[in-house]
Specification:
By secondary structure, the protein is mainly alpha-helical. The chain has one domain (2-110). It has helices spanning 14-17, 22-25, 33-54, 80-95, 97-110; strands spanning 2-4, 60-62. The longest helix is centred in the middle third of the chain and has 22 residues, at 33-54.
Length: 112
C-alpha cells in the first residue's frame, strides 16, 4: 500500500534553469528546487517499480491535497507560515465531501 498526498504543480522547465547557479537550486524561497526534483523523481520511480512488482496487489491512495497560490505549501520548508498553510489545507481537505469519501474508502480497505 502506498499513500500520496499530492503532486508537483509547478514544473521546473529547462528554460527556467538555463541561468540558474547553485544558489538558485538551493534557494529556500523557491522551495529548494533541487530537493523537489529529487523527491518527485524518486516518488515516480517507487510507484513504477511497485506497480511492476506487485501488479494488482499494489494499492495506491492518492489523497490530492490542493496547493494554491494564496496558501502555498512546500514539503521542504518548516517555517511557521508554511506549517500554518499546511494545517489550513489539510483542514480544508477534510471539510470537503470528496476528502471524507476518500478517507472512508481508505478506512474500509484497511479494515478488510
Amino acid at each position: 500500500m502506498s499513500f500520496g498526498t499530492g503532486q508537483m504543480e509547478d514544473r521546473i522547465t529547462v528554460n527556467d534553469t538555463k541561468t540558474w547557479g547553485i544558489i538558485d537550486w538551493l534557494n529556500i524561497k523557491k522551495g529548494i528546487p533541487l530537493l523537489e526534483v529529487y523527491a518527485d523523481g524518486s516518488a515516480d520511480l517507487i510507484d513504477y517499480i511497485a506497480t511492476q512488482l506487485l501488479k494488482d496487489k499494489y494499492n495506491r491512495y492518492q489523497l490530492l491535497v490542493p496547493n494554491s497560490k494564496e496558501k502555498p505549501i512546500s514539503t521542504f520548508q518548516a517555517d511557521p507560515q508554511n506549517l500554518a498553510n499546511l494545517v489550513d489545507v489539510a483542514n480544508d481537505f477534510l471539510d470537503r465531501s470528496e476528502g471524507d469519501r476518500q478517507l472512508e474508502e481508505l478506512a474500509a480497505y484497511l479494515s478488510i
